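Hello,

Following up on my earlier ticket. Below are the two sequence lines again, exactly as submitted.
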Amino acid sequence: MTDDQIVEYLRSRAGAQPPMDLVGSIVDAIEAEPQRRRSWFTPFVPAAAAVAAAAAVLVAALLVGQGPRVGPPPASSPTAAVTSGPTASPAPSPTPVPTLLVPGDEVTLDATDTDGRWGSVTLTRGEDVGGYDDGSVPPDSFVIEVNVEYVAEREPTPLEFGAPDWTLVGADGQPVGDVVASGGRHEIARPALSSYPGAIDIFTNPLQGWLLFEVPRAAEGEALQLVYQPSSLAEPVVVMALREPRPAPDAVAVVDPQPPEPVTYVERSEYPFSVIDSAEADALFDVPDSCENPAADGAWTVTYPDAWFSNTEIGVWPACSWFSPTFYAVGDDPDAVPPQIAFVGQYMEGDSGSFEERLLTEPLTVGGNPAVRFEERGAQGQGGTMPPEWHSYGYQIQLGGTPEGGPNIVFRTTTDMGGEYNLNKAVLDRIMALIDLPE
Amino acid sequence: MLVEQHATEMYRVAAAIVGEADARDLTQETFVTAWTQLPRLREPAAFSGWLRRICVNRCRNWLRASKRRGRPSSLDMDDGLANRLPDRSHDFRGAVEARMLLEPAFESLSIDQRAILGLHYGMGYSISEAADALELRVGTAKSRLNSGLNVLRQAIGMTEAPQPRVVR
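Thanks for your patience. The regenerated structure is below:
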């Protein structure tokens, strides 16, 4: 017996003929099931997402050939552990039970929905910090950090949870401050708590991340409380003391990124062109993984370190476009590259133009195609847009007759992306040396 | 209509992973789940992959539940199949014999091994597509594919595993 018989067996399993009435029975089953979550979902999503949701509802209508139906109204109140005032706006409890006043304090609550407990949520008090060195917090504010982890025992109803469940309020019960804007270097160590449904509709369990509350320094003298109120509930579930009045920490100075250290290239027998000399990158490739971008235009298969992370198809990005040395979370905009990503690969119809200063242009053959290895630095004030300490390094692989005419595949890392720039370059060298492109 | 477009594929995915006997119910559950959760789908263009993931997850849940129930395998339910077959051709008998060896081996695999073998070899999905449906990294999917394949090889008496048939 051979592998062929195994494959034949597996194909025979998948070759089953569906019963004649399969489609009809599915439609009957769908018609018997109210699409109950829709009426809950719409009010809580951003406008653009609501448009997408509406489009999905239209698709749903087409699915069964009838107009959308509205499910039953929500239950009036959950079976909450701790609640406060009867109004819809969060109001502090007169006797908040759990507290998160000291860094390291940990509280585990019932994750609650309209039907009661659906899992647990554990909060760990982080530090008060004066800001971050990436300048993402203005000097007139400071930050309260809280780590949150949801563990689901069933799907919540409606299926919505994450960052919007939490509000920081002052003594008067009114919201205080905002959350720190995403996109800065601080997110590499403190990935923000995302929300579900979010940018990618894959049920994430557990869901973990950081709530980073940006608090005006003027509120340092206030007692602050953290309110847990899922958006489907009319009243808070729990109100916790989060900060007692005390001086805010000093503002953190913004640190501008420094120009990268010079690198040296070495010839290696396993690679068709020179690569940056890096024992760390070599060690990473001792345990390789691979991924495939199956896009009709600009497909590729690459070998990359098993310890790193790549992506499945997200937003406009095909699978195998992002590479990160650390775990990353997709933000609310699925097209936005998370800050942890060290480099990206993308298909471009034309040339990858730049206003910055070109430091390196090295013709190579990559994946059997003509290519250029390049490095740039910022030329702000001299026609460029980026500061001089900013660097960019990458490969442009030519798919068409000329680089200018395109199309091209471009892999690029920059000093403001995740990871360590020179290591990113060294890893990218090795990935490009091993890339497979379809003929 | 979306059901018509995707019903056969989902039925075959379910049959490849759990077997034909329960494929109909799982296909139906897949579409009902998709219908109730459709508002969560932000990218209508991603419907196919999303539906596939729902179907695979339904199959995984079914397998977990069936292990707890101690459900008899499809081979147990069809014991003696080879004895009932007419001796029409050696190839046909060989295929039946292979199936009798492979069926219990397949059912002994882990849930993800069953799923990756069914999706990749049975359905013809690329490794990347199968990994996506299973929400696994490609490297993990390949590892489970190879380990599952080796179990099946041993079941049919192949002592030395040849090189994997699918590399990327």
